[in-house]
């Protein structure tokens, strides 16, 4: 079959194909038994200081303070 024998893609067919692909993706996402990569366990949190509090001025907090300056 040559390319001249095929009908030109219409807007209706393009949207129908996109809808079908979206529906198939949604079904595949909810199917049970699919293998998904298991996230690595997070590093254990450091214990809170014995003197109370727990606020630590870490690098990401300092970065926030630098970007929040007016």
Tell me what the structure shows:
There is one protein chain. By secondary structure, this protein is an all-alpha fold. It has helices at 11-30, 59-67. It contains two helices and no strands.
How many helical elements?
2
For the secondary structure, the number of strands is: 0
* Low-pLDDT sequence parts: none
What radius of gyration results from the CA coordinates?
27 Å
Shape: elongated
Could you state the order of secondary-structure elements as H and E?
A: HH
The percentage helix is 40-55%
Largest sheet: none
The protein's oligomeric status is single chain
List the helices and strands and how they pair.
Blueprint: H1 11-30, H2 59-67
What does this entry show, briefly?
The chain has 70 residues and is mostly helical. Helix content is 41%, strand content 0%.
Give structural attributes.
about 70 residues, mainly alpha
